[in-house]
Amino acid sequence: MIYHNYSHLKFFWLNVFGLIYSTLNIFAAYMLSNLINMATKRQFSVLPSLVTQIIVALTIILISGLLFNYLKTDAVKQINTKLRTKVLKGMLQNKEEDSANLGFLTNDFKLLETNRYEAEIEMLIYAYTVILALGYALYLNWFVTLIYFVGSAIPTIVSNFFQKPIQKASSDWTKANDKYVSQTKNILAGTSTFNLYGEQDNAVKQNKSAVERLEEKLAKMNVLNNNTNTYLNIIAIASAFLLPFAFGTLLVVNGQITLGALFAITQLSNSFVNPILQILNERNNLSTTKGIVNKIKQFIAKGEQKLQNGVATGDFKQLEVKNLTLKRQGKELASQINFAVAKGQKVAVIGPSGSGKSTMLQYLMYGDYGQAQEELLNQKAVQPGTFTNLFAYSSQSAVIFADSLWFNLTLGADIPREKVTDVCEHLELGQLVKEKGFDYQLGDNADQLSGGQLARIELARAILAKRPILLLDEVNASLDKATSQAIHDYLFASDFTFIEVIHHYEPAELKRYDTVIDFNDYI
């Protein structure tokens, strides 16, 4: 993931400095061999030269190490920023909120940072260390080096038996974490309710089972990882150190290798045995993030999808729906609904609670919860859910973002300030804008606004989106009669096309609409 999501130039220098930094142990082995041979041969005249080499080499390695650390940290920062942004875009393609997504962006991404990004970088540097150390060791004595290398291969083979259990444990932990985050978020959302009834202890008790499941799965994953590392370490000590050193000692006794070369190869063995063990450990860490990586790829792919069969906003003339049946949770709400709405028309939707009025708006936007015999857009047959960009939506339960008033009105779109101000004035938000300003933050201050103000902010957002059809779901539910009257006067005087679900109304008010869809006729 590092190479594909990080600057290739920076990745090149990351490798360069990492390669230089990985020569530390090789240089130490080289100096160890020279110092031992100097002592055994009593050639102390070369000591000043060796000291100079040590100072120069360690300085270069130190600077390379510092630069490598900076680039490694920068890589994690840049990749996290890039992937979090792309994943969020993919999440926002969903029609409804998934409570598990928050946990994925926090807990799972933290695990990804430690067990994926850093693991990939460390494996790269360990590989350089192995190659350099092995090359120098072979130069000193190929036979002893071969014995060390064969011994180090044994833990590699053994580690393959532990991969599948670790991957399964990681998958189980991810699922348990999603459930825990979802349940905890739901409980925290009801803090005021638990406080009202004094049932905080029961809420904690209810959540405890999810905590226990989460910690049980995490403990299982960790113990598998730790046990695997323990087995590999013990096997490595026996096969990759003790046995090869015994063979080397015999060769020194027989005069087939110098003592300095044996110590150097032993020192180097740590630089190709230990890194191999570290690579295996990091591979285990990579296994724990396999599910997370696949999920990231799915979100990114979703975020890169483009809406197909979209309708240009200026092309709308008429939408017609024939024989629509609405269903929710397997229950039929209403059937054989027929209606048409032309550009500029105002349509009212009335009927008993629970009959499917709001569900019909969801069907129009996304094609969910229903099936129609035919839908015609500008006299052409279209598939449900393929023309979402035809609609803007406003409901009695306003969606407000923890951001400025301006962002809540425009969603970041480039809309002239004069246009935004004009719409706010018509929706009686002008006083709010004058007092608070468009920079007013609704994150911590949304509770200081009335439900009616929040509902009108969402209505203004829908109008400013300039979609061909406004879908209004009981927008007057939290408005006083005078404000509702003023807003509807504005809506009816405009050239807006809208379909409005209304519950409380006077029969005379229905005369203002071009069409009335009465669900009493379809249930």
From TrEMBL:
Membrane is among the record's keywords: yes
UniProt keywords, alphabetically: ATP-binding, Membrane, Nucleotide-binding, Transmembrane, Transmembrane helix, Transport
Entry's localization field: Cell membrane
Gene Ontology cellular component annotations, sorted alphabetically: plasma membrane
ABC transmembrane type-1 domain mapped to chain residues: 16-288
Membrane topology label: Multi-pass membrane protein
UniProt key word Transmembrane helix: yes
Pfam annotation, one family: ABC_tran
Listed SUPFAM superfamilies: ABC transporter transmembrane region (SSF90123), P-loop containing nucleoside triphosphate hydrolases (SSF52540)
MF term (GO), any: ATP binding
Primary localisation category: membrane
Parts of the chain that traverse the membrane: 12-30, 50-71, 123-139, 145-162, 230-253
Residues of the ABC transporter domain: 319-523
Protein name, as recorded: ABC transporter ATP-binding protein/permease
Native source organism of the sequence: Lactobacillus helsingborgensis
